[in-house]
Each structure stands twice: as C-alpha cells, then as structure tokens.
Amino acid sequence: MSLTAGQIRAARALLDWNQQKLSDESGVSLATIRRIESPRGPDRSTAPNREAIQRSLEKGGALFLAKDGHGGPGVRLKR
C-alpha cells in the first residue's frame, strides 16, 4: 500500500506526534519528513524511508486503510 502525505499527517495527529517525534522514531531525517508531508508527497522519497515511517507509525498504534469501494485511503487507531 502506498501511503499519502495526508495519511501520514493524520496518523501523527492520532498518535499526538509532531514531525520531530516521527523523525526520532523512524530514523528518517526531519527534512525528509517535512518533504514527504508536503505537496511533493511520499512518492518522491525512497522506499526505505517510506517503509520506516509506516512501520514507526504502525508500531505507535496507527492502522492504515487502503482505498476501497467505500472511500479513499485513511488511517485509524488500532483497537
């Protein structure tokens, strides 16, 4: 699944993480986090950076939802 910038921002909000916290947890530089969350989006970053961000947010309790017949991509907290 390819994450969107909006999903990453939403996951951070659900976890009450700022960009620095995501950087610390994922090992991805703060500048890269900012770029990924900008209109340029995650597709402009490397796969290892995107994967590290996703793993960190999931470890923190975020669950990413794929686009399906009921709506676009989303994010929620794990139960």
By CATH's scheme, which homologous superfamily applies?
lambda repressor-like DNA-binding domains
Query: What is the ordering of alpha helices and beta strands?
Result: HHHHEE
Shape annotation: globular
Q: Spatial order of the strands in the main sheet?
A: 1-2
The number of E-state strands comes to: 2
Oligomer: single chain
Report the top-level CATH class.
Answer: Mainly Alpha
Percentage beta strand = 5-15%
Radius of gyration from the CA trace? 12 Å
| Average pLDDT figure | 93
Number of domains: 1
Helix- and strand-based class? mainly alpha
Distance, first to last CA: 21 Å
Going by CATH, the architecture would be Orthogonal Bundle
Q: Keywords, please?
A:
globular, 4 helices, mainly alpha, 10% strand, two-stranded antiparallel ribbon, 79 residues, 434 Repressor (Amino-terminal Domain), single chain
What is the structure about, briefly put?
The chain is mainly alpha-helical. It has four helices and two strands, in the order ααααββ. Helices cover 52% and strands 10% of the residues.
Structure explained in plain terms:
This protein has 79 residues and is mostly helical. The chain has one domain: 434 Repressor (Amino-terminal Domain) (Orthogonal Bundle), CATH 1.10.260. 52% of the residues lie in helices and 10% in strands. It contains four helices and two strands. It has helices at residues 5-15, 19-26, 30-37, 47-60, and strands spanning 62-65, 74-77. A two-stranded antiparallel ribbon has the order 1-2. β1 and β2 form a beta hairpin. α1 packs parallel to α4 and α2 packs across α4. The longest helix is centred in the last third of the chain and has 14 residues, at 47-60. The two termini are 21 Å apart. The model has no long low-confidence stretch (mean pLDDT 93).
